[in-house]
Amino acid sequence: MLIARATLDRIADDTVTLAFRRWKRCAVRSGGTVRTAVGVLRLGAVESVEPARITEAEAIAAGYADATALRTELARREGGTYRIELGLDGPDPRIALRARPARGTELGELTAALARLDRASRSGAWTSRTLRAIRDRPGVRAGELAATEHRPLPAFKAGVRKLKDLGLTESLEVGYRLSPRGTAFLRSRAGSPVPGGSPQPGDA
After folding, report:
1. SS3 for 95?
2. pTM recorded for the entire structure
3. Domain range for residue 150?
4. Which of 4, 62, 63, 107 is the right S-S partner for 102, CB 3.0 to 4.6 Å?
5. 80 and 148 housed in the same domain
6. Closest CA to 82 of 33, 34, 19
């Protein structure tokens, strides 16, 4: 569920409490959460509605000037219309994770998690290459990094999201950078062989 940054800021200060989306199939569920740039959003009731029945108050609560403006926006898309209650639930736990270097058991678990991602990839190990690419070229557009890594852009972005979930990377206005956790991880892995002499995921 994509939400513009300006709208996220208004959700954070509680001036936007509803969202309306048009989907062929509902993409969220009541009681779910969505991680965003301003924190974790909690989702309340999710209901199918008729655009003509959306009230002025609901449109304003969704951040629109009036119901006509909201209906005009919805008319540009296909599918059913859904009314979604939402609000800020708390900070994104990945923010605190990014600042905390992995040590001891946690470092082993992180290394194992990256190894699992590498094994699951049809195109082979990618985590260490991607971490190094982001370290060496912070703020570079994803398309350029993907081309350098010879990976399709959607697959590259999906991979970076997985690294972000582990607290290793941060998104910038353009491109990415390593988090303090990611930087510390690469340093900890530099020159650390695994049995058989192969580098571990994340080796520099």
Report:
1. helix
2. 0.65
3. 94-189
4. 107
5. no
6. 19
